[in-house]
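Journal club side-thread
Mid-discussion, someone asked how the predicted structure for our own chain would compare to the paper's figures. Pasting it here so we can look after the session.
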Amino acid sequence: MTLPGWTTFSFTHDGLTRDVYRRGSGPGVLVMHEIPGITPRVEAFARRVADEGYTVFMPDLFGEVGKPLAPGYALGQMARACIRSEFAVLASRGSSQVTRMLRALCLRLHDEAGGPGVGAVGMCLTGNFALALMVDPWLMAPVLSQPSLPFPTDKEARRGLHVSDDDLRVIKRRTREDGVTVLGLRFTGDPLCPKARFDRLRDELGAGFEGIEIDSRLGNPHGISPLAHSVLTEDLVDKAGHPTQRALHRVLALFDEKLREPMRAAARDA
């Protein structure tokens, strides 16, 4: 399916082939969609990023492009992801196979867009993929929106980060030495992205992790549903003062700080 205003190309790496949607110009940002697929709200977020002045690559990983979210559709795609070999949904100390393809796609994006590096946004099933991509030096602005892998089936899994111990050591070094900030977003009542996971990120990364946790308890002041899950898409309320809008603006500000500001600084010094 085509998306108005987007071009597409086919990308193959490590035995996986996916269509990739491309839009915009400027520094690169990889947008990895959530379950069930590239819904209209996911496309709207990616378009917003592109319209802010970035080259966006959005790979089609599962689902039907353009199909709106519906409970049955989401459950069906979740079930399919659980049995597909490229997604290791229960792995606490290892990344899904698909992240190898996404790392190569990030390199292509960086080669095409230039600049100091690229950003990456993962959501839900792909949330911690943005963390795994940090093992490469060109990933400079990772955003983990409601990272849900590994599925929080027990205490260890609730604290799991879906990266290997070796990769975690590289990630920790990059936050210390390269100034990379890992930005995480979640609703406080989201069972798929438990508090323990953000606590673990704080424990491991210290000042290198910035967590935004949006109150979704019953009776919260913004009337956010206790079932809220998708911070940047389905549950985004793009109105002044709403915490999800503030989260969106922080994502855009991170891209500006890490991807655009170094280019402005270099131009001033030239």
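Post-session note: The mean pLDDT is 95.
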